[in-house]
Amino acid sequence: WTNGAGVSVTGSNLSKTAVNNWGNGGASSVQQIISGDGYIEFSTNETNTTKFAGLSKGDPNQDYKQINYALGLNASGQIYISENTVLKYGPAGSYVPGDIFKVAVESGVVKYYKNGTVFYASTTAPAYPLIFDTSLHHTGTTIINAKIASTTQNITWTSVVGVNVSDN
């Protein structure tokens, strides 16, 4: 994690330590999806706090409004989708601790998953690079088992000596 504020970090897990408010708790990934397909995945320990997590072009602050493709989980146990500050879908059902959420880019389409099932597909094409971005509202809010993966990232070779390079 990088750009953390108001959170404690343990491995791939975040927990908000700052007071209840927007814009004072969150972090983003160092890793990026440079192009093509990839995804972020996470879970949470509670349903009585509010949090947003998703894919962003950048991370200027910890406010949920700057997460480009945000999956929101509210303190009433409901799921929402917000893209570029616009509520796109929701409530999209409820969630329980341990549900696995994923925001994925697949063939140029951003898709939102709960426990392996797509429940919303965006109509807005992503702009790269993308990072895993979070915004946490309530003290004690968690993002756990966070992952980011890129399935089509190319390798750029440097310091090439004594070998021929072809593609990756």
Gap between N and C termini, in Å? 27 Å
Individual helix count: 0
> How would you classify the helix and strand content by structural class?
mainly beta
Main sheet makeup: 7 strands, antiparallel
Would you kindly provide a written description of the structure presented here, covering whatever features stand out?
The chain has strands at 2-5, 7-10, 13-16, 26-33, 38-43, 51-56, 69-73, 79-83, 86-89, 101-106, 109-114, 117-121, 130-136, 142-150. With 168 residues, it is mainly β. Strands 1-4-13-6-7-8-9 form a 7-stranded antiparallel beta sheet, with no helix packed on it. It has a 7-stranded antiparallel beta sheet with strand order 2-3-14-5-10-11-12, with no helix packed on it. Strand 7 (69-73) and strand 8 (79-83) form a beta hairpin. It is globular, with a radius of gyration of 16 Å. The mean pLDDT is 93.
Question: Could you outline the blueprint of secondary structure elements for this entry?
Answer:
Elements: E1 2-5, E2 7-10, E3 13-16, E4 26-33, E5 38-43, E6 51-56, E7 69-73, E8 79-83, E9 86-89, E10 101-106, E11 109-114, E12 117-121, E13 130-136, E14 142-150
Key phrases:
168 residues, seven-stranded antiparallel sheet
Briefly summarize what is shown.
The protein has 168 residues and is an all-beta fold. It has no helices and 14 strands.
